[in-house]
Amino acid sequence: MITVHHLENSRSHRVLWLLEELSVPYQLKRYQRENTLLAPDALKKVHPLGKSPVITDGNRVIAESGAILEYLQQKYDGEQQLTLNDEDEQIQGRYWLHYAEGSLMPLLVMKLVFAQLGKKPVPWLLRPAGKALSKGLERAWLNKQLALHGSVIEQHLSQHRFFAGAHFSIADVQMSFPLLALQMRGSLGDMPATARWLEGMQQRAAWQRALEQGGPIRFNNG
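The line above is the sequence of Glutathione S-transferase; the predicted structure tokens follow.
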């Protein structure tokens, strides 16, 4: 049976969601974050990087959200519920599957890191300088990048029901986490199509079951 090594409040919600969509049995092994908000060392016994998400399936250990989603679809989607038959949709689906972690999430992680520069564990004497530096970087570059990415996503979802096009796919599962982060930080106010898409994802029965299994998702707003 598949074991999902689930870190609280993490990207592994996407894995649970896909397993629920496909009605694949799994067991959940939970891990709590340290005070540093990092994963505990126990996860290194599963995968040397010690990060979540990671699954075990028999003797296989698979990490990285996109790789896990592709593996689960290819092996367990026997009824081809999430198979994209149209070539253009396949290309779009592949793009957004990799875009989520390759382009969008690094910007969101930077924003989170910048927000901590004025807080502990930064020494108190350096916190004012750290806060000023983070605000300057956000104004000069990061916020503009996030706005650009948001406009691209919004334009796409204003023209398509799902990220691949007309059909739900693992690209939607993958994109859910960064867009949920943006929503919880109040950044979807000028992205109505994106907000509608996310609301539709959250209303799916499999999403709700995944939340019941894995617990709520919360983001540090800095």
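Note on the example: The first strand starts at residue 2 and ends at 7. The two ends are 38 Å apart (CA to CA).
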